[in-house]
From TrEMBL:
Family annotation (CDD domains): DPS (cd01043)
Protein's UniProt name: DNA starvation/stationary phase protection protein
Gene3D superfamilies membership: 1.20.1260.10
UniProt domain Ferritin/DPS: residue ranges: 17-153
A GO molecular-function descriptor: ferric iron binding
N-terminal signal peptide: none
Family membership: Belongs to the Dps family.
PANTHER family cross-referenced by the UniProt entry: DNA PROTECTION DURING STARVATION PROTEIN, GENERAL STRESS PROTEIN 20U
Domain of life of the source: Bacteria
InterPro entries, sorted: DPS_DNA-bd, DPS_DNA-bd_CS, Ferritin-like, Ferritin-like_SF, Ferritin_DPS_dom
Length: 155
């Protein structure tokens, strides 16, 4: 069926493309955070292990919300590792870093997600897509706060 939600097809496509990048960044951050949860060691183990679990659990819910918004706009949501690898701006590390390097790496990754999310806002304004703008605002609040908390721990 045709989609007639008051946002043009071109605007929906532009927003969905941006959300696809946000989805890839969010999923990549989820994987990175989950890996760090499994592999963290050292004197901060208990604190970081629990904190990383809270963070990756929140990210798992976020990827679903972002993907469902892409679908609501009428486009397929990317869902493969190869698609995410092409779309993400988050750098993967080849080794398992020490605990505080994990924290610093996650700060950088959350900041990447913030920049990706912000880059979509002009398209949501042009397309009068308040729903996506609200989703992005919520994501920004979470990622900025998480980056601040991690940054404070790494100081």
């Amino acid at each position: 069926m045709e989609i007639n939600i008051g946002i043009s097809t071109a605007a929906r496509k532009k927003i969905a493309d941006g959300l696809s990048e946000l989805l890839a960044d969010t999923y990549t951050l989820y994987l990175k955070t989950h890996q760090y949860h499994w592999n963290v060691t050292g004197p901060h183990f208990n604190t970081l292990h629990a904190m990383f679990e809270t963070q990756y659990s929140e990210l798992a819910l976020a990827v679903d919300a972002i993907a469902e918004r892409i679908r609501a706009l009428g486009f397929p949501a990317p869902g493969s590792y190869s698609a995410y690898n092409k779309l993400t701006s988050i750098k993967e590390l080849d080794e398992v870093p020490e605990a505080m390097a994990m924290v610093r790496d996650l700060v950088l990754a959350h900041e990447v997600v913030c920049r990706t999310a912000r880059s979509i806002l002009p398209a949501t304004e042009e397309g009068h897509d308040e729903v996506t703008a609200d989703l992005i605002t919520q994501r920004l609040e979470i990622h900025e706060k998480t980056a601040w908390m991690l940054r404070s721990m790494a100081a």
